[in-house]
Amino acid sequence: MFSFFKSQQSKQNRIIEFLSNQVAVDIHSHLLPGIDDGSPDIETSLLLIEGLQNMGFKKLITTPHIRMEVYPNTPTIIREKLADVKKATLQKGLNVELDASSEYYIDDNFTELLQNEEIIPFPQPRYILAEYPMIAPLMNFEQRVFEMTKRGYTPIIAHPERYRYWHKTPEAFERLKDLGCLLQLNILAIEGYYGPDIKDCAKYLLKNKLYDLIGTDLHHERHLGRLKKLGELNKEMQILENYNFKNKQLFMDV
Ligand SMILES: [Fe+2]
C-alpha cells in the first residue's frame, strides 16, 4: 500500500518538475473573476492560482477572452481585475508572479481594436494571443496575421490542435509559422482532455517541432485535476520533457 502511494506521488512530482523547471511561465489561462468563462469569483481565482503555483508555475500571464459579442472586455477592465486579484494573492501569502494580457478572438472587431491601438498585449514586447474560430476557418486568416505583424506584433496562435478543420491539411500550421506566428499547445490536449483527434494533432505538431509555447488554458478546477493526472502518463510526459518550449526564455525575466 505504502509503495502504491509513493509511486502515485512520484508520478505527480514528474508533472510538477516539468512545469517548474522547463516551463515556469503559464501564458494562457482564465483566472480573473467574473469577466469570461473562467473563474466566476475571487475565491475561485485564488484557488486556481494557488493550484497552479503548487503545480510548479512561478509566473502566470492570465488571458481573459476579448470577443465583443460575448466577452466585451477592455484593457481597463482587465487591468482593474488584475489589481484586485494581485492584492488578494498578497493577502493570502501566495508568491506567484501575476500579469495579464488577453486571448483575442480574431474578427472584424479585433481589427478595429488593432487600428485604434486599444490592445493589451503581453507585458513583454508586443505578443498577442490570438484565437481562431473552432467551427470553420477564417477565409482571410493570412491577411489577419499580416494586420498584426505589420504593426510589430508577434501573434501567438492559441491551441492550433483544436482547429479540427486543419487536421487534414496540416500545411496550414506551417503556413502560420512561415507568416511569423508562434504556436501554443494546450497542455491538456496531450492528456486527451479534448478528445483523441485533438491529441493526435498535438502529437503531430510536437513531432514536427511546430510548437513554440505551451499553456494550460485553465478555466476551472477540473482542468487542474486533469493536469495532475497527466503526470501519470509516461509516454506523454516523455514527449513533453524532450521538447524545448520557449515560455521561460521569452517570458520569465523580461
Ligand atoms: Fe483560452
UniProtKB/TrEMBL annotation:
The keyword Protein biosynthesis does not apply. Keywords: Hydrolase. Pfam families: CpsB_CapC. Gene3D superfamilies: Metal-dependent hydrolases. It catalyses: O-phospho-L-tyrosyl-[protein] + H2O = L-tyrosyl-[protein] + phosphate. InterPro entries: Caps_polysacc_synth_CpsB/CapC (IPR016667), Pol/histidinol_Pase-like (IPR016195). The keyword Hydrolase applies. SUPFAM superfamilies: PHP domain-like. This is protein-tyrosine-phosphatase.
